[in-house]
User: Which sequence fits this backbone?
């Protein structure tokens, strides 16, 4: 049986599973991440690990195949990775532009939320990040 290669659609579904109050969804999400084509899905796994609120121990115990790949990249940490660490790892891994674009959009949304929490009127913001098409 062929292993699943993660893509934008599957990643969004997995995020929904992790955000569900139903703990069985978390188990299913762990299984998908643990049994996907780890090498072909590396960039998506970097994003999941980097933004995860799960501890290194959780990954090691519940998603060991994916955690092994993360360990090989040298980015394992008990704390959420910084945006710079995630971007640097994605660049080093030479991920596809779609993966970098996806992460940058998530990061911009996190920045907007943080700014809103700090009292900045985000309705005055008008910016976006778009990767250049190098043809």
Assistant:
């Amino acid at each position: 049986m062929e292993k699943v290669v993660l893509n934008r659609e599957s990643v969004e579904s997995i995020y929904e599973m992790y955000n569900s109050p139903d703990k069985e969804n978390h188990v299913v999400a762990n299984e998908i991440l643990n049994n996907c084509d780890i090498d072909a899905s590396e960039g998506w796994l970097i994003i999941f690990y980097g933004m995860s609120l799960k501890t290194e121990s959780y990954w090691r115990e519940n998603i060991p195949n994916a955690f092994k790949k993360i360990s090989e990249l040298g980015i394992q940490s008990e704390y959420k990775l910084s945006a710079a660490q995630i971007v640097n790892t994605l660049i080093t891994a030479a991920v596809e532009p779609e993966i970098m674009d996806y992460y940058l959009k998530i990061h911009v949304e996190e920045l907007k939320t943080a700014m809103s929490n700090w009292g900045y009127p985000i309705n005055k913001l008008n910016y976006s990040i778009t990767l250049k098409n190098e043809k």
Observations:
- The chain has one domain: 8-124.
- The mean pLDDT is 88.
- Helices lie at 8-19, 23-35, 42-51, 56-62, 64-73, 83-92, 97-117.
- Residues 8-124 form one domain.
